[in-house]
Amino acid sequence: MRILVLGSGAREHAIITALLREDVDHEIIAAPGNAGIAAEVQVIALDPANPAVVTEFALENDIELVIIGPEAPLVAGVADRLRQRGIAVFGPGKAAAQLEGSKTFAKRIMDVAGVPTGRATRAGTLDEAIAAIDSFGSPYVVKADGLAAGKGVLVTTDRDAAVAHAGYWIGQGSVLVEEFLDGQEVSLFLLSDGHNVLPLEPAQDYKRLSDNDEGPNTGGMGAYSPLPWLPAGFVDEVIDTIALPTVRTLAAEQTPFIGLLYCGLILTAAGTRVIEFNARFGDPETQVVLPRLITPLSGLLFAAASGELGGMPRPQFSDDVAVTVVLASEGYPETPITGRIITGIDTALAIHGVTVAHAATALSGGDLVATGGRVLSVVATGSDFGEARSRAYLALEAIDLEGGQYRTDIAQRVAE
Fold it and tell me: Backbone phi, then psi, for 258, in 5-degree steps?
């Protein structure tokens, strides 16, 4: 199959790695990709968020399936243009992608669908935000209403920080102030063809920069899968009470959701609640879910894109566990220092069970250099979490990036 993967991060690298693992010789092109992706498949300098450019390229190159990785192309309507020209695409159209692009839209859909979630107030002015912050009380939860590259959510007991966060994002639109929900968080991916859903395996990610969940929120510093502490029947419950009601409500509103429904969930004392929806594979969770996938990924994504998930068996996963730890640049997330040389990846890859998904890398004068905040996702599989963690951190010790930082406690709780 001729496949075009849009994006340049570790998520897209993990998707491509899963496609290459299949017993089929796919022809894969990535746009724009990164240095790690370029070492494995063809990459092209193409703006993934430009609907006309992407569609023209797909038509001229006989692309059979387009997989949209990041959220920006979805919100820009890339999937809509591709579908209009008869190209199979895994990713929702612009209207359905509002499920991620607008938290106000997502809350309305959840309300119509009867999906359990926390109470929230939309604020368009700072005075409205302050009133909502004081109404809900501490801990304060303030979220940018639109896309924020993983940096729009603040959970804090510091009222001044909550007000400042609200003021910053109101300057760019509006915010949602929500009630604080306490419990273990779960990320669950579900494939959707607009009517039916198929679940992948749950994962848990780590949003805070530093060990013990300290420091600022980030795009994600690590993840692991599966989650041995989940109650029996959890995935079925999410399908019945959250995923299917959401997908069918969107279909009833003539905005079918075709792609990856990311359910950000929390297990509270009152039951499972939705924290947020995303409209694409999550990063870094993708890096631990896809390595365990046995069912060919291309067939699943093509079936979703073609409206043919109904009646398909659930995807199969290996009994191995997976852990990923993100290596970030010095200064991330506020002011990451870029351009520094990365070495030791080949040594890391020589460790059994280890792969490295590139997130922000490029070649410069023959050297591999960091080009962003989250640079690499070091992924390790093993028969148990102790083994996987040992492999992941041994690999990280082999990789050198001046000022590089990573958490040392990813999956520690489940390994003990």
Answer: -120, 110
